[in-house]
Design brief:
Protein name: AB hydrolase-1 domain-containing protein
CATH topology of the domain at 37-97: Rossmann fold
Order of helices and strands: HHEHEHH
Number of helices: 5
Strand order of the largest sheet: 1-2
Mean pLDDT: 85
Distance between the termini: 30 Å
Helix content: 40-55%
Organism: Streptomonospora wellingtoniae
CATH class of the domain at 37-97: Alpha Beta
InterPro entries: AB_hydrolase_1, AB_hydrolase_fold
Oligomer: single chain
């Protein structure tokens, strides 16, 4: 996490502001149709300051086979903050894709 913070703090303010503006205006909902028939994991951190908490909930609601997991104490960089939990979610998703039981 320190590396990410250093990268952001070392980036000129106008660049960071431009990034956030483009991220805030991004709407990828038109592409959700391709995922509707698939098992999906939606992972979010309860301390994410980049993505609004409503976005992962809306995403999970839009996908009938989605499973939402909000990770306590995590922000936006889940693979770095909770690598074991993210890995476990991906492993469970892969096991399900090949027809193996989870657990």
């Amino acid at each position: 996490m320190r590396e990410c913070a250093e990268l952001i703090h070392g980036t000129p303010t106008r660049v960071v502001a431009g990034f956030y503006e483009s991220l805030a205006g991004q709407d990828l909902s038109a592409g959700l149709g391709a995922l509707r028939g698939l098992h999906v994991r939606v992972l979010a951190g309860d301390r994410d300051r980049v993505v609004s908490p409503r976005h992962p909930r809306e995403l999970a609601r839009a996908l009938p086979r989605a499973r939402l997991r909000v990770m306590a104490g995590c922000g936006h960089m889940l693979p770095m903050e909770a690598p074991d939990a993210v890995g476990a979610e991906l492993a469970a998703l892969c096991r399900g894709a090949v027809g193996l039981r989870e657990g």
